[in-house]
Specification:
The chain is built from 6 helices and no strands. The longest helix is centred in the C-terminal third of the chain and has 20 residues. α1 packs parallel to α3, α1 runs antiparallel to α5 and α2 runs antiparallel to α3.
């Protein structure tokens, strides 16, 4: 994936490209291992395509959505400590995805959307 030094240079397009690589998204996939995240990641990929096509071509909403899917899956994923100690490289792809979703571009986008939503709620009071 990307070098840590380039994290400040990430765009939403870069982050989505990394997400699709991480999730293994294949829009033509028809069968899934239901004991893995394949189906949920595929379904998320289809929703991301709709977000990009119909709502926000900048990719901001799609990245925020992908981050929520990533977080949900990581919170429910269980790993044995022994497996991590024996093969620490196995966490690399998860660490890269985490870093992408916590890059300045994503954190700033989330703040802007939260501020906008707060403004909408405040103006209705």
């Amino acid at each position: 994936m990307q070098d840590v030094n380039h994290q400040n240079d990430l765009t939403m397009v870069d982050i989505l490209a990394h997400w699709f690589e991480f999730s293994g998204y294949d829009k033509d996939q028809k069968s899934f291992n239901l004991l893995s995240s394949e189906y949920e990641y595929n379904r998320a990929g289809k929703r991301i395509e709709v977000l990009l096509r119909d709502y926000d071509p900048t990719g901001t909403l799609a990245v925020i959505y992908a981050k929520s899917i990533f977080k949900k899956n990581m919170q429910s994923t269980r790993m044995h400590l022994w497996d991590i100690l024996e093969n620490p490289e196995s966490l690399c792809e998860f660490q890269w995805a985490y870093r992408d979703f916590h890059s300045p571009a994503v954190l700033d986008a989330e703040k802007q959307y939260a501020d906008m939503m707060y403004g909408l709620n405040s103006s209705q009071i």
